[in-house]
Specification:
This protein is an alpha+beta fold and 447 residues long. The protein is built from 15 helices and 14 strands. The protein has 2 domains: 200 residues; 167 residues, no CATH class. Pfam families: PDDEXK_4 (PF14281).
Amino acid sequence: METETQIFKPTTSSWDTLFLSYQNYQQRRQNLIVQGINDYCLLGTVLKVHDETRLHSRFIASLLNSRGQHYKQGFFTELLLTLLPSELQKFEPNKVEVQLEVATGKLDNHLKKGFIDILASDGQQYWIIENKLNAKDQGKQMARYIDWARDELDSDISASQLTFIYLSNNKTRPSKSSRGDYDIVEKDGFGWVHDGQSKEPVCRYLNLHYHHHICDWLELILEALDKQDQMRPFITDYQTALNRYLKKDKSKVNTLIDFINCDNSIDRAEHLSMLKDIELSLPTVKAQWLTAFMQQCENYVVQQGLLDSEYENTKQTFKPDSHYSESDAVIWFKHASPNSSDKGKEKGIFLPLAEEVSRKNGIDGTVYLSILYGKRKLHVGLHIESDDSVTITLDKRKRWKSIPNHTLYSKCVDLAEDIWLMGNDNKLPQSMVNLKTLCQRLKEGRV
């Protein structure tokens, strides 16, 4: 029997419960912050968590290097070996030396060179570690690195002495294009690389994953380190950065997502229905804030006495699909091409300045103070009416030489951020700050 879908209509009481629950969540969060609990990650502040080379390759290499400044010799490599096949146990941790970005010669039909991400060796065994956290395989990349190693490292190197390690974010193996004429014969991520013609093995093959091997390695390190060891903070910091990239990181301080998923103050289905109502209402609410803000801006400029006495009859409303000559409207969307998605969707007003204000600022012609917005930006600026008789002094043209013809001044902010301040009576939106600054400069003749 088909069950009729229940429709929840939040009551005043349930709204009160939701907002009270949210206030309690904010208080719990603040209490944790006061206690010093945080989600700070040093590596994540100086490098992007997806930085394959400067963050991940360098950190992993630094742990493998027995001569590294951690002064623990092969301690970290020894722990990694416990996660790897027994055939690789001949690798001597205390003798490992590491090189980063090892040049292997120019790529075919390219001026730039190819580079092995990490080359580790104990003098007898060699590991070529190709780090593919997010990068794509290059053509014949694996083949080139293996060929280079066999030619340059040791002319008598045997297949069991060389291991190609493919370190990735859950990829199974290098692409066919990367393998070139080589084949991979493996089981559970470990095996051999064979010559495609002779079928003879040329080196070992190992598939490592960040999700499994590297994360497990970091856990082993933390378990093995003494509680007071000064290396612990560095390991946990990298662990945090990696988990953020892998989306495994859980905030130590309560987040809004925790509140939405875990709050049990009211029936969950009703809770979600209320959140949906808020989501559906927000566009209308923000549109109302923006409309009121535009009127507030116009009123402010009027109060400053900067406009033409007949401005009510001469002001222009800038609507979608209205454009000025020479694509001057593009300036309101800085760093965007004339074909950007915002072009043709601008809205706002052009308020004509009084002639004495224009002359005071050294401008001959009709000047509009412009307040415009599109999907992404809100702009405050000055726009000179397009007319052959308009002149502008050379020093001003030099000052604003990056701005297209007929546009004298432009300041923009992100609309998505600023619009929230428009509904907040306690703090000025940055766009209003820009408008007030421009008005003050106009009054002082400093545009």
